[in-house]
Design brief:
Layout: E1 13-16, E2 19-24, E3 27-32, E4 38-41, H1 43-51, E5 56-57, H2 58-72, H3 83-95, H4 101-105, H5 107-121, E6 125-127, H6 130-146, E7 151-156, H7 160-176, E8 183-188, H8 193-204, E9 214-217, H9 219-227
Helix pairs in contact: 1-5, 2-5, 7-8
Length: 228
C-alpha cells in the first residue's frame, strides 16, 4: 500500500483527477474540475498530474516515470545520463522484470513513490476503474459548463478616467464574447465623497442600453449591505 492510501495497491489502476493548474514555480494550485476544490501542489506534483492523465497500475506508472526520466536525462542531482549508461539501465530492466521498480531504480523510484503518495492523499490521484473514470469525465464536463464568471468585481479609489477605461474595456470584451449573462460591479473605496462622486459620475456616462450591466457601490451602498 502507498502512503496516503485510499484503497490503492501497486496493482491498482489510477489516473489523475481532471484539473487545471494555476500559479508559477512553487506557488501552484490545482483546481479539480469535478467540484472546483483548490489544492496546493508543488512543481513535481503538477508535472505528474499532467503526465498521469491515463489509467495504469501504480507500479507501471512508477516504472514508466523512472524510464522516461532516465531516457531524457532528468534524474536528480545530475545534468543527464550518457547514452551508454541509459542503454545499460534499460538492459538491466529487461533482464530484471520480475523485480519491483524500487529494486531496479532505487532512489528515483522511492522519490516518485513519495510524490504519488502525496497526490493520493490530496485526492488528486484516484483509482480509475471504468465506473470511477466515467464519473470523473461526466463531472468534468458539467463543471466546464458551470465554471463561468458571471460577476466581475472591480475595486476603485479615485482616478475616474482610468476607471472608465477599465470598465469600458471589460464591458466591450464581455459583449464581444456574447457574455450577456455577466455583470460588472465597481466597489468604490475613495478617501472622500468628492472622489467617490467623480467615479460615480464617470460610470453614469455608460449607455443605459449596454449589453453588460454595470453597477456602482459607494459608501452608502456598502453601509446598507452591512446593515442587512
Amino acid at each position: 500500500m502507498f502512503r496516503g492510501d485510499i484503497g490503492t495497491s501497486k496493482d491498482t489502476p489510477v489516473c489523475a483527477v481532471p484539473c487545471k493548474i494555476f500559479g508559477k514555480e512553487e506557488e501552484l494550485v490545482a483546481v479539480r474540475l469535478s467540484d472546483g476544490l483548490p489544492v496546493r501542489v508543488n512543481s513535481r506534483e503538477a508535472q505528474l498530474l499532467v503526465r498521469m492523465s491515463t489509467s495504469r497500475p501504480l507500479s507501471e506508472w512508477i516504472e514508466s516515470l523512472c524510464k522516461e526520466d532516465i531516457e531524457n536525462g532528468r534524474t536528480r542531482g545530475g545534468s543527464g545520463l550518457s547514452q551508454r549508461l541509459s542503454r545499460s539501465l534499460f538492459s538491466l530492466v529487461a533482464t530484471a522484470a520480475r523485480h519491483s521498480p524500487t529494486d531496479i531504480y532505487g532512489p528515483l523510484s522511492r522519490s516518485y513513490n513519495g510524490v504519488v503518495s502525496s497526490l493520493i492523499a490530496k485526492r488528486l490521484l484516484v483509482p480509475s476503474d471504468s465506473a470511477v473514470q466515467a464519473i470523473l469525465i461526466r463531472s468534468a464536463a458539467r463543471a466546464a459548463l458551470n465554471c463561468r464568471i458571471t460577476s466581475l468585481c472591480i475595486p476603485a479609489h479615485s482616478r475616474p478616467n482610468n476607471l472608465y477605461r477599465c470598465v469600458s474595456s471589460f464591458s466591450q470584451n464581455l459583449a464581444r464574447g456574447g457574455r450577456t449573462d455577466a455583470s460588472i460591479l465597481v466597489v468604490d473605496d475613495s478617501s472622500d465623497k468628492c472622489l467617490e462622486l467623480n467615479n460615480r459620475s464617470a460610470l453614469n456616462a455608460f449607455p443605459s442600453d449596454g449589453k453588460v450591466p454595470v453597477r456602482f457601490w459607494g459608501y452608502q451602498e456598502r453601509q446598507r449591505l452591512m446593515a442587512n
